[in-house]
Structure formats: structure tokens, C-alpha cells
Write a structure and sequence with these properties.
By secondary structure, the protein is of the alpha+beta class.
């Protein structure tokens, strides 16, 4: 599945370290750490009616990842939110917007790997696009990737870093197989996540998802688990084998970019009866209500700004 281009994004204004610039003129230095070594952290945010869902949690994960990578400077939440608001206002955005927030270690004074070469502070990039949830309602088809997710002793997935080569290689396999995305396993053969999302399965009336061993902490994943606790939905976090996925009654994926997306088939095997199941529907409805009623206000309706 190839994401479509939205004409509304033709003349986007991008924010790079507080400078608002047209997408065609935007750029970062070849000495920036993101260019030199993928040395950066990022977050995907979604704007609903002027409110960013789980903004506090996203910024906490960004800060946690930057600390784990020993960034010497990290902008405050207030500074980041101010720049987000400036970017949204510059693009006259209010709803159905996806934001990619990137914080790099910054520009080096000479090319090299050593973080001590970074003495100019971090680079903050805010890219906001008009973009509804990307997966639609048709049901996803997944294949199992040959690429395995790293465990914490190789590269801890709790660091939400910009080195996405594992995901890209898995996505290439999915593209070549004519699938929407790739299911990725850990080194023991248990389900980690897809190349872009967390995975939930339903079996025997219980919702199951992987432990945080070889997959990152997920904001949407956590929201779904909290909905389960609030509404008395049976759930469990544990290792899940590929066989359990094949025989599941339902499978769905979660993420900021696609919210909750149901899975029709994995490796050519139909999941359940091949339709979106009742667990997925109920949780999708509950999640939709959550995004409608919560979030951090970053921009008021334009009528209120006049």
C-alpha cells in the first residue's frame, strides 16, 4: 500500500530550529548528526480538532530517548509546544494532521562519529502534514519478515531513534510480496511488531499483545491497554508465537499514523472469518471517543483566533 499525496501539502511550511520555510527550500546541514549517522530521536503526533493526542506522553518519550543517547541539550516541553503551534498556524492546520517531530544531536563542527564534535546545540525539526489515518478500512495483509528485531542487549527498542533500517528492509520485503506491511519477530521467534506498528491478537475472548522486549514503548498501544483496564476487557501482555497469530480470531495493529487497523490475512492465511471482529470494532470506537474528548490544546479554532 503506497501512501497517497495530498494536494493540500503542496506548499507546506516546515519548521527547522524555529525558522519557518517552504518545504521545497527546507534543508539541514550535511554536518547535522541526523545526516552523518542517523543520530536523532523522533515522535509521530496526531492533531484532532486543535488538540494533540497524548502530547505529554510523546514528549516524555522523546526526552527519555534523547537522554538515553546522552544529548547534552534538550528543548523544554514548552519550547517544543510553542514551535508546534507556530508551525500549525503557519499552515492553517486544525484537524486530520500528522506531525513528525525530530530532534537531532545537532550540527558537528567537522565530520565524524564522536558526539563531542557537537557543540552547537540540537536541531529541532517539525513537519506537519494534512494526513488522515493511512490504512483505511479494507483490512491489512501482512507477511512475516526475515528481518528480526533487536533485543535490548543489541539496541534497546526503548530508544525511539531515527535508525529505521530494520523497518525499511522489512517494508521492502512486504512491498515485494504485495503485502501492506511486514510482521517482525524477535530473535527467539516471538512476535515483536510490524515494520511500523504494534500488534494485538484476540484468542479465546482475550486480547493479547507482545511484551516490550523487542518492540518500542507505544503511545497508542498504551492507550488501548488503558481502555481495556477501564472497560473490563480481558487482556494480557506476553510472548506470542507466529502460530498463535495464524489461528487468532482477530488481529489488529496500532500506531499514531494509522490508529487501530484490522488485519485480514498474515502470510496468506485468513484471520478469523476475514472481517473486522467485535474486539477490534469496540476498541476502535472507544479509541475514537478518546481522541475526540482528550488531548493537549495547541491551536484554537481559527474563528477564535480572529
Amino acid at each position: 500500500m503506497l501512501q497517497k499525496f495530498y494536494e493540500q501539502n503542496r506548499n507546506l511550511i516546515v519548521n527547522i530550529n524555529g525558522k519557518l520555510i517552504h518545504r521545497d527550500q527546507a534543508g539541514v546541514s550535511p554536518f547535522d548528526s541526523a545526516v552523518q549517522g542517523g543520530d536523532a530521536v523522533w515522535e509521530g503526533l496526531r492533531l484532532y480538532q486543535g488538540r494533540i493526542f497524548k502530547l505529554t506522553e510523546h514528549l516524555a518519550r522523546l526526552r527519555s530517548s534523547a537522554k538515553a543517547l546522552a544529548f547534552t541539550e534538550i528543548p523544554t516541553d514548552a519550547e517544543i509546544i510553542e514551535e508546534i503551534t507556530r508551525t500549525l498556524k503557519a499552515n492553517e492546520m486544525f484537524d486530520e494532521v500528522h506531525l513528525r517531530l525530530t530532534l537531532t544531536r545537532g550540527v558537528k563542527y567537522t565530520s565524524g562519529m564522536d558526539p563531542r564534535l557537537n557543540q552547537m546545540g540540537p536541531t529541532l525539526i517539525i513537519l506537519a502534514e494534512h494526513k488522515p489515518p493511512i490504512y483505511g478500512t479494507a483490512g491489512l495483509k501482512l507477511i512475516t519478515s526475515s528481518i528480526r528485531r533487536f533485543p535490548p542487549d543489541c539496541l534497546d527498542p526503548k530508544i525511539h531513534h531515527n535508525n529505521l533500517l530494520q523497518s525499511i528492509l522489512a517494508k521492502i520485503e512486504a512491498n515485494n510480496a504485495g503485502a501492506d506491511d511486514a510482521l517482525m519477530l524477535d530473535q527467539r521467534g516471538f512476535v515483536a511488531e510490524t515494520n511500523a506498528t504494534h500488534v494485538f491478537i484476540v484468542h479465546g475472548g482475550c486480547l493479547l499483545t507482545s511484551r516490550l522486549v523487542a518492540c518500542p514503548e507505544g503511545i497508542t498501544r498504551d492507550a488501548v491497554l488503558e481502555l481495556c483496564r477501564t472497560h473490563g476487557i480481558r487482556h494480557e501482555e506476553r510472548d506470542i508465537s507466529l502460530t498463535e497469530v495464524y489461528r487468532a480470531d482477530e488481529v489488529f495493529c496500532t500506531g499514531t499514523m494509522g490508529e487501530l487497523a484490522w488485519v485480514m490475512a498474515v502470510d496468506g492465511r485468513l484471520i478469523g472469518d476475514g472481517h473486522r471482529g467485535p474486539f477490534t470494532k469496540r476498541l476502535s470506537d472507544l479509541f475514537g471517543e478518546l481522541t475526540r474528548t482528550s488531548g493537549t490544546v495547541v491551536i484554537p479554532p481559527f474563528s477564535a483566533q480572529i
